[in-house]
Amino acid sequence: MLETLMQMQKRLGETPHLLRLGRLFSETVLLEIAEAEYYLTFEKGALVSIEEGPSRKTPWRFAFMTDAEALEAFWQPRPAPGFHDIFGLVKTGRGRIDGDILMLVKNLRFFKEFMALPRKGDLA
Amino acid sequence: MTAALEPIIGRYVTVTLGGRPHRIYFEEAGEGPPVLCLHTAGADTRQWRHLMNDAEITAGHRLIAFDMPWHGKSLPPEGFQTEEYLLTTEQYIETVLAVTEALGLEAPVLAGCSMGGRIALQLAALHAERFAGFIAIEASDFQAAWYDIDWFDRPDAHGGEMGAALVSANISPHAPEAERWNTLWMFMASGPGVFRGDLSFYTRDDSLVGRLDRIDTARTPVHFLVGAYDLTCTPEDTRRTAAAIPGATVAVMEELGHFPMSEHPEGFRPFFVDALGRMPVA
Description:
- By secondary structure, chain A is α+β, with helices and mostly antiparallel strands.
- Chain A contains six helices and five strands, in the order H-H-E-E-E-E-H-H-E-H-H.
- In chain A, strands 3-2-1-4-5 form a five-stranded mixed beta sheet.
- Chain B has a single domain (9-278), classed as Alpha/Beta hydrolase fold, catalytic domain (Rossmann fold), CATH 3.40.50.1820.
- Helix content of chain B is 33%, strand content 18%.
- Chain B is built from ten helices and eight strands.
- Chain B starts with 8 loop residues before the first strand and ends with a helix.
């Protein structure tokens, strides 16, 4: 998973429209995949660090929790219904969002397109 | 040599709603029995343009669509600048009936998507005599919001961009990329507070639930179309609603989402043609 996240980091840096969409987004996001925690710190839209947890000391703005199988289904080029969006995962009980959801919604297109980056190639 | 013109014609008509004049924009194409088409929340008539440009469909039907007040090219009423837009079932019914009358439509088929499908069912329950039949797309009795509708009208953020990012959850990954983004553009460009005001109707008014038993499909058929990728009105929501209306029929569109006529015109076309075929011919 860490390797995939690093590939996503690289791809984000190579995607000008996403960097522009995220230009006001400087926050840490917790991505929790089953038991594994990853703290993703964004600075003006760029993903500047990926820290593996567990950590009880790292503050985060919002968190997205899911499981590896659901994430793999989410990353398919044409996901099945329910796996096609992070809110689909939430609605079907395969994902959860915690924390400052308004911050997520204000940057929703940016975060959704970041999360979907592996769909566009063979990162997953 | 001039470029080919689309057959869609757009005009304006003024109707009185709530005692005030409203200038309504409408488009139409085709000849034959009228089909009045209602757009979703936060969008406008452009959602129907693919069907209106479909020569085979318009050879046998007159398709008409209008922008709700506050939407698209229909202006809000005079004095809107100090008002909070909150659509109600009563206003919505009044609007559809007023436009039907203003355009002289004799017993049109009513085709509505999402909140348009919801109001089509309300009209099927309360004013069926004014219509020939109902095509209820992404339609159901009621679902509470799984989001906070106030997100979409804030002075510190762009409600349109947030609304588009949210509703993109309802678009199928089978939708062509260009049409996905054309569909989202309408949400991005909608007026401040308009999507929220539509959602107030859609997510807070459950009055249809107790009225479903008034719908008489022997007199006016009701055919439901629902996309498997619709997270807002799921196939389960539509099936539950249809089960409460004896004689209602349902088609699940496996590769489509919440905006089928707009997000994936080719995928939607056969389902719409089938639906028209189920409606009585005037």
